[in-house]
Known about the structure:
Layout: E1 19-20, H1 28-35, H2 69-74, H3 80-109, H4 112-131, H5 134-154, E2 161-166, E3 170-172, E4 178-184, E5 194-200, E6 203-209, E7 217-223, E8 230-234, E9 238-242, E10 249-253, E11 258-263, H6 271-274, E12 283-289, E13 294-300, H7 312-318, E14 322-330, E15 333-338, H8 348-367, E16 371-377, E17 391-394, H9 399-408, H10 418-428, E18 434-440, H11 445-452, E19 460-466, E20 473-477, E21 480-485, H12 490-500
Parallel strand pairs: 3-11, 15-16, 15-18, 18-19, 19-21
Antiparallel strand pairs: 1-10, 2-4, 4-7, 5-6, 5-9, 8-11, 9-10, 12-14, 13-14, 16-17, 20-21
Helix pairs in contact: 4-5, 8-9, 10-11
Amino acid sequence: xxxxxxxxxxxxxxxxxxxxxxxxxxxxxxxxSLSAQKPPNVQTRFSSTMxxxxxxxxxxxxxxxxxxxxxxxxxNRTGRLADAIVAVVRVTREMEGVARSWIGRISSVVTxxxxxxxxxxxxxxxxxxxxxxxxxxxxAWAGLVLVLVAVIYLVGRSSFTVQLKTAHSRVIVxxxxxxxxxxxxxxxxxxxxxxxxxxxxxxxxxxxxxSLAKAAEFTHEFLVPTAHRGVVQIGPVRTVRADPIGLVRxxxxxxxxxxxxxxxRTIGVPSTTTxxxxxxEGNPTRQISNSDVSFHALREYVPGDERRYIHWKSTAKTxxxxxxQFEETRRSHLVIALSLAAADYAxxxxxxxxxxxxxxxxxxxxxxxxxxxxxxxxxxPDFAKRKVFAVSRLSTLxxxxxxxxxxxxxxxxxxxxxxxxxxxxxxxxxxxxxxxxVCGSTTTPTQLRSASALFPVDVExxxxxxxxxxxPGLRRVPGLSVLTIGYLEDLQKSLARSAAA
Length: 501
């Protein structure tokens, strides 16, 4: 997004070319736009449908019970004196607002060293001339010269356009990522150089832009750190104008911020192993239904049964109406439950492996167009009296949406452990066919067995324990399969072995 300062003299309504930081001089419109910056997937909605009806009255009863600024100043009094007092207070407040605005602008560009100089110079003049101390007089005049030079550095604006571009808005953790900032001179004369700063997460990329001739451009590429999973804010690009001594510093914002999602690493998982289900029409369950696909038995007709399910051959043999009875079938519904409890992991390495496992399973299910739910345990507020039993569902609309959500999750001491997550999932998610419980090495086998016991008997429960210090393995207990993996590459082999067993 580019802006040109030369457009400042354009008709009203056009956006100013340069926006300054909230703590420096900045037009009011720019401040509101910056304060509203959020990641792309964060939206704020507000609507108001309230209506009001106004009644004007000049009677004495109209002021009864009224509480506003006028009543606080003059009460219920009317007349010229009261109006004059109110007018004086109103003008005073307006002047106070203007003074605060100017003081805010000045304080935003003056550094602590500059404020110190503004105090030292008058004192040096007073004591130097008052005491006849010529050294202080020299210091006072030298300081005054430095202040005047600093003020000159604040005069004027640079006329150039700035563009911030990222090669990719989504990258995998550990992969190299870069962004470029391009500064062009659209004027007919040479412009002076400037210092350009680009915030990159918690870091800062500083670029010294050289002097640019007519129609010249300057491009600088900088790296974006991707060592850790998360969301990195890049920008907004700002230029800095400061005097050599550092008495003043003026910052102008030229672009909006860009956001880069750093996704967890995933691995390809064969589609035949994610669900342990290979039929096309659904799996028969132990629940009996009057209308489905999988035939179960015949029973005698009762009022209310569908006539189309009458079995006429059996009816002819028995002399009574007989209807078909079916076993209820369902499509494969995968649930991937990831624990965010710090107690379920020995270190951050195990948690990152668990996030990658959940992402790999979810991406495979989305590609296979399976019905999948990826959930994480909610955290309990710091001052809550009771534990919060709830889970958050991550987006499974697309692969990118799921990985975007996985990029921002993190461990929490008050989050639900794997057993509590299994309890909430078994109660709130219907039609589960396979449940994956992803946790770390500190989760005990007893916890895993109690978690699997919370699901219905016809649900296949698979616990994936992430422990980089252990040899991959597969253990089966009644109603539960426990896969232990040390690296992400072990997931594919362990799932294939479990599906074949």
